[in-house]
């Protein structure tokens, strides 16, 4: 009787250890890392966005200088410069938000296709995870091509 119970408990323990090992193995395989800085910089529309932001930056700088030159009060000059900086930040956000949304959507698509449960930024991971950076960049390129290709009737 004792040996039968011991054998049964041993088999059950082995199954639990095997199941736990399989689950841990699956968890490790479903974790990915990504370099979001690289993905964002390689977005198909990023060069245009950088050019737009440079133009707007020069424009806001010129506006701030022209308005500040008309003021004699240093506090008012500082306020003008601060206002123009805030306007610039809002304009940059308007330009970058669609790019960030595209990048996040591409990450979700790649993660779904690869059945990944967790995607972390590469900068916070020391060891482990499957790097999906290039996959996401390719997904963005495909998405951009699909968006610019005219639909056939």
Helices and strands, with pairings:
Layout: H1 2-29, E1 31-34, H2 36-41, H3 46-69, H4 74-113, E2 118-121, E3 130-131, H5 133-148
Parallel strand pairs: 1-2, 1-3
Helix pairs in contact: 3-4, 4-5
Distance linking N and C termini: 77 Å
Oligomer: single chain
Radius of gyration from the alpha-carbon trace, in angstroms: 27 Å
Q: What composes the largest sheet?
A: 3 strands, parallel
Strand percentage lies at 5-15%
DSSP summary: helix tally: 5
What is the topology, as strand order, of the major beta sheet? 2-1-3
> What is the structural class?
mainly alpha
Keywords, separated by commas or semicolons:
153 residues, mainly alpha, three-stranded parallel beta sheet, 5 helices, 75% helix, disordered C terminus
Question: In a few lines, what is going on in this structure?
Answer:
By secondary structure, this protein is mainly alpha-helical. It is built from 5 helices and 3 strands, in the order αβαααββα. The chain has helices spanning 2-29, 36-41, 46-69, 74-113, 133-148, and strands at residues 31-34, 118-121, 130-131.
Describe the structure.
It is a single chain. The protein is mainly alpha-helical. Helix content is 75%, strand content 7%. It is built from 5 helices and 3 strands. Helix 3 packs antiparallel against helix 4 and helix 4 packs across helix 5. The longest helix is centred in the middle third of the chain and has 40 residues.
């Amino acid at each position: 009787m004792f040996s039968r119970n011991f054998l049964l408990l041993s088999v059950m323990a082995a199954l639990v250890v095997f199941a736990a090992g399989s689950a841990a193995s699956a968890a490790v395989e479903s974790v990915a890392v990504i370099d979001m800085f690289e993905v964002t910089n390689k977005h198909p529309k990023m060069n245009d966005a950088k050019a737009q932001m440079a133009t707007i930056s020069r424009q806001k700088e010129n506006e701030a200088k022209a308005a500040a030159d008309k003021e004699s009060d240093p506090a008012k000059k500082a306020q003008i410069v601060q206002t123009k900086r805030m306007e610039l930040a809002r304009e940059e956000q308007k330009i970058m938000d669609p790019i960030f949304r595209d990048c996040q959507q591409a990450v979700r698509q790649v993660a779904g296709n690869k059945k990944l449960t967790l995607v972390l930024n590469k900068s916070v991971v020391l060891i482990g995870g499957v790097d999906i950076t290039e996959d996401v960049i390719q997904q963005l390129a495909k998405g951009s091509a699909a968006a610019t290709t005219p639909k056939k009737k």
